[in-house]
Specification:
- The protein is 6% helix and 47% strand.
- By secondary structure, the chain is mainly β.
- It has a single domain, classed as Jelly Rolls, CATH 2.60.120.
- A hairpin with a 4-residue loop joins strand 10 and strand 11.
- The longest helix is centred in the first third of the chain and has 6 residues.
- The structure holds 6-O-phosphono-alpha-D-glucopyranose (G6P) and fe (ii) ion.
Length: 187
């Protein structure tokens, strides 16, 4: 009997996970109502258009002390003048933190605390981001190639999308004169 087990694989160049415990999901434009300011334009786009994909390695389930490892692939694109982005979330268990790191492409990690104070960090291959507990996080692809970002977080953290869906982030990232700018959100 062998005691050497085959590990799962993280293909760093492609940003792809493979092997036991790996799952994959795609978020299409249809699944993102209320995320972009130009809601009418979003609703008029091909509903099957992929905005981002998430790969996840789960070997422990949602247990205290467990960890998940994930990779997000955010496609380049815009809805109106607003860049493609993830839904964004607080953790259900608010005190849980997370690490993100840039693998490919360029963009921003938008962060917002519970007092709705927002700021952003530039994401690029090799960038490393510590997301403290109580801080909502959203990835935004401001470039014209796919943005790939790795993540590791406590498996009991959970996702609270509700707060962001109801009130949004206090900042939106839009293209103005060919460059990404942060604007105070109206809703
Ligand atoms: O969950 P979203 O806000 O849509 O972001 C997409 C995904 O991004 C990262 O990979 C996180 O680690 C995942 O937990 C998250 O699900
Ligand atoms: Fe998270």
């Amino acid at each position: 009997m062998s005691i050497i087990h085959e590990p799962a694989l993280f293909d760093a160049a492609a940003g792809r996970l493979k092997g036991e415990g790996v799952s994959r999901s795609t978020r299409t434009i249809r699944e993102l109502p209320g995320v972009f300011a130009a809601e009418e334009e979003r609703a008029s786009l091909d509903p099957t258009l992929p905005v981002y994909e998430v790969e996840m390695h789960d070997r422990c389930g949602e247990v205290e002390g467990g960890l998940y490892f994930g990779v997000s692939h955010v496609h380049p694109g815009k809805v109106g003048n607003e860049f493609f982005m993830t839904k964004g979330h607080f953790h259900q268990k608010r005190d849980r933190g997370e690490y993100y790191w840039g693998i490919e492409g360029n963009g921003l990690l938008l962060l917002m605390d519970e007092a709705r104070h927002s700021w952003a960090e530039r994401v690029f291959p090799g960038s490393l981001h510590y997301i403290a507990g109580h801080v909502a996080h959203r990835l935004i692809n401001t470039g014209d190639v796919k943005m790939i970002v790795g993540a590791c977080w406590p498996s009991d953290a959970g996702h609270d999308y509700e707060a962001i869906l109801n009130e949004g982030f206090s900042v939106r990232v839009v293209e103005q004169d060919g460059s990404p700018v942060l604007l105070e959100a109206r809703s």
